[in-house]
Amino acid sequence: MQENAQEVKEESTVTFDDLGLNRDVLNAVKAAGFIKPSPIQEQAIPVVLAGRDMVGQAHTGTGKTAAFGLPALSNMKRNNGVEILVITPTRELATQVSDELFKYGRNLGVRTVTVYGGSSYKRQLDLIGRGASVVVATPGRMLDILKKGMLNDFAPSMVVLDEADEMLSMGFKEDLETIIHATSKKKQILLFSATMTPKVVAVTKKYMRIGIDCF
Ligand code: AMP
Fold it and tell me: What is the DSSP string of 120-132?
């Protein structure tokens, strides 16, 4: 009995107000009805706010989108260009992530564009050109756009690789590497993955700055 009681983990008392998020983002969190941060949010938010690279081991459903989205939006400089680039393996996930970021960034007036294959380049580029600060993209279409030089001054200060294990097992390694090389050297890189496969670990070692945090 005693042993079982000791095994029960104490629940964290940390609230969203304790994490250092900006007021507009906090209001969006409250409007979304979130009561307390999930474990990955509690750990990731201060690290991302501090501008550090981060590796998060997290499945869908753990609140990982808000774990990077809330601090990323909180840190935005609003300097007119694309500041946050999120790469996801599929169009469905890109749409889902985009909807979620739109919800958190609404009070900030942040524009979010979803970029994926099989639909018009023109519309996606027009939306980016009209002042989007967040782009959520699948690797193939993003690479195409970059290779064709279709975007001027594309220099996001943060790149998020979401579901990295999926992207690498789908064969997107070269695409991801080219995208990483084609964006600013000084950017903050975040990587989320359900599993830490050798391929994922290799990417973290090659591209992320020392001092990454694994959960
Ligand atoms: P994700 O793991 O990012 O796919 O998020 C899964 C779902 O959890 C989404 O519908 C989020 O809106 C929701 N969610 C994220 N963070 C929280 C939270 N702290 N409290 C309640 N729901 C949340």
Answer: -HHHHHHHHHTT-
pLDDT in tens, 34-67: 999 999 999 999 999 999 999 999 988 999 999 9
Which atom of ligand 1 sits closest to the CA of residue 32? Answer: 12
Residue 158 tokens read as 């943060």
- Residue 1's pLDDT is 38
Q: Which two tokens stand for residue 208?
A: 């992320």
In three-state secondary structure terms, 177 is helix
Sequence-separated (6 or more) residues with CB below 8 Å from residue 97: 65, 69, 86, 88, 136, 162
Give me the chain's average pLDDT, please. 91
Which residues have a Cβ under 8 Å from the Cβ of 170 and sit 6 or more positions away? 89
Return the H-helix or E-strand segment holding 72: helix 64-74
What is the pTM assigned to this prediction? 0.93
Ligand 1: distance of its center to the CA of 161 in Å? 18
- Contact between 117 and 91 under an 8 Å Cβ cutoff? The reply is yes
Nearest atom within ligand 1 for CA of residue 103: 12
Pocket of ligand 1 contains residue 145 by CB under 6 Å: no
Cα 67 from Cα 19, distance rounded (Å): 11
Q: Ligand 1 centre and the CA of 10: distance in Å?
A: 21
Q: How far does the centroid of ligand 1 lie from the alpha carbon of residue 135, in Å?
A: 20
